[in-house]
Amino acid sequence: MKKLVLPALLALTLAACSSTGPENGAASVQDRGAGVATVTAGSASGSGIAALTDPNNILSKRSVFFDFDSFVIKQEARALVEAHARFLVQNPQMNMLVQGNTDERGSREYNLALGQKRADVVKQALMLLGAKESQIESVSLGEEKPRCEDRTENCYAENRRGDMLYTGEF
Amino acid sequence: MIKTLHAFRPLHAFRLFLAGLLASLALGAHAQLSIEITGTGASRFPVIIPIFENEGRLPQSVTDVVRADLERSGLFTLIDTGPLPMPESVPPDLAAVRGRGADAVLTGSLIPMADGRYDVRFRLFDAHKQQELGAMSLPMSPAQNRLVGHRIADFVYEKLTGLPGYFATRIAYVIKSGPNFELQVADADGMNAATALRSREPIISPSWSPDGQRLAYVSFEQKKPIVYVHTLATGQRRVVANFKGSNSAPSWSPDGSQLAVVLTKDGQSQLYAIGADGSGVRRLAQSSGIDTEPFWGADGHIYFTSDRGGSPQIYRIPAGGGSAQRVSFEGNYNVSPRLSFDGKLLAFITRNAGRFQVAVQDVATRQTTILTDSARDESPSFAPNGRMILYATDTGGRGVLSAVSTDGRIRQRLTVQAADVREPAWGPQIR
């Protein structure tokens, strides 16, 4: 497991460094002590373990899709959620981030709240199947990270989903 | 970066457009907003703003800025009187002003000061009543032409409309260009755009502190929504809300000490207040559904979106606590409430036959009017004087900002070349 934790820590450390230091070359906006200094945000990224990325393993699949205006896990996603719950039970040191997503229609912040509902539903299903509450954080990306950017029903359907990420992947 | 723009003085109608184009070519990432006027007031006030005496000594014009501001407001027509100044010290020939078809004239002079600055003196006259409406004097360094121009435009606007001007204010917005996001701040005329935050992950919901020095916003740079407060002048950022779950929708209290935010640490999206330094979180409301998009109004109420009644509607609660009162009643999707600074008008987004449009409600009478005919409007935001509403919309699949007057007549569109613009927030009036 050391293999896993180390890159995650490293990523977090890097992110912490890069998100605090203002860059040089700040542009001034107006002279009432109100210029604007440019900051570049850092981000966390890492890698998982083999089973989680092996395309032949169900654990490599991470997305649970939802119908329009729905917050119910469909029958077809059952096996996937069960497999991830089993993995979390068997690997209590692993943590998961569930990211809820929506299609782009409507208010960004309201969609963020709707995405949260989807993430919560996935989290609750995993907990019912034995995963610990402390292992899972459910958050929302709302409509901000569309997987598909066309304005078609197929695209919208692809964007209405919950994604399961493991330690080191977020 | 503004200097190169003013080296060009093409036809007036194209100036703003060209300025934006040239700026985006010259500055690359520092893409400039260009503003296009798409609708004006029913009757516009004809005014004469001649060049100020000694203005030619400045590297950049002041009165060009004044004229552009007034023209862009949609409430004025500028009557050109050629290159001759009308000095502030000389009473203007108001009969001649009337003869040109103007109702008002601004006379002005720049008086050189010992320290290299200028004392800008100006007087506004009503040509029909044949009386002076006011006079003012502003010291300026030669580089302050834009700021001083905006202040003069505010003066003219206020004297002639009775409402405070909004030209010396700033706006914030987010630009998405490919995979890159930039939180930018620009003057209300789209000039002087500067990037406050650059990120590979989304940035949403910028909210101005009442002093205009800081922005609160939501950044996804840590793969989840976290609320930050960002001091613009220094670039210093502070995480204000990073609880387990999602943290979003910041709105400043009118005194600048707290933020209303949405947290999911205790379950569904719910409203909390938190110190602007991240201290002392407390619950503001409790519901079994979603509560989000708080807007902390100057009237002491927090307006928000909730689906507690089944569909998303706008409610309000007293900021000090109390029961929620429903505010929107028509339709089954009303979101993103924003109260004008005087508390008289509530702007929000309503879904009208499948189209998301900007609506405004008279808070006293509850009368609601839809102001736009577009389909994907989002994130309304009042100008400090409550006259214009800035919002995000979409033309041809591209995100643009638009502004509409609260009577629906005056319309402007703000675009950035080859990028999506979204999430606008109009900053406060700083006196």
TrEMBL record, chain A:
Q: How does it sit in the membrane?
A: Lipid-anchor
Q: Where is this protein chiefly located?
A: membrane
All residue ranges annotated as the OmpA-like domain in the record: 53-170
Localization (cell): Cell outer membrane
Name by which UniProt lists this protein: Peptidoglycan-associated lipoprotein
Q: Which GO cellular component term is one of those annotated? A: cell outer membrane
| Listed Pfam families | OmpA
Job of this protein: Part of the Tol-Pal system, which plays a role in outer membrane invagination during cell division and is important for maintaining outer membrane integrity.
Q: Where is the signal peptide?
A: 1-18
Keywords recorded for this protein, A-Z:
Cell cycle, Cell division, Cell outer membrane, Lipoprotein, Membrane, Palmitate, Signal
> Quaternary structure?
The Tol-Pal system is composed of five core proteins: the inner membrane proteins TolA, TolQ and TolR, the periplasmic protein TolB and the outer membrane protein Pal. They form a network linking the inner and outer membranes and the peptidoglycan layer.
Give the family, as the similarity comment puts it: Belongs to the Pal lipoprotein family.
Q: Which GO biological process entries does UniProt record here?
A: cell division
Organism of origin is Thauera phenylacetica B4P
Automatic annotation (TrEMBL), chain B:
Q: Has the keyword Magnesium been applied to this entry?
A: no
Q: Name one Pfam family in it.
A: TolB_N
Report the domain of life of the source organism: Bacteria
User: Would you tell me the Gene Ontology cellular component terms?
Assistant: periplasmic space
Alphabetical UniProt keywords:
Cell cycle, Cell division, Periplasm, Signal
Signal peptide segment? 1-31
Q: What is its main location?
A: periplasm
**Residue intervals of the TolB N-terminal domain:** 33-133
Asked if the keyword Membrane belongs to this entry, the reply reads: no
An example GO biological process term is: cell division
Against Gene3D superfamilies, the record matches this protein to:
TolB, C-terminal domain, TolB, N-terminal domain
Cell compartment(s), UniProt: Periplasm
Q: Which PANTHER family match?
A: PROTEIN TOLB, PROTEIN TOLB HOMOLOG
Query: Known HAMAP family for this protein?
Result: TolB
Q: What does this protein do?
A: Part of the Tol-Pal system, which plays a role in outer membrane invagination during cell division and is important for maintaining outer membrane integrity.
Recorded family membership: Belongs to the TolB family.
Subunit structure and binding partners: The Tol-Pal system is composed of five core proteins: the inner membrane proteins TolA, TolQ and TolR, the periplasmic protein TolB and the outer membrane protein Pal. They form a network linking the inner and outer membranes and the peptidoglycan layer.
Q: What is the protein's name according to its record?
A: Tol-Pal system protein TolB
Gene responsible for this protein: tolB
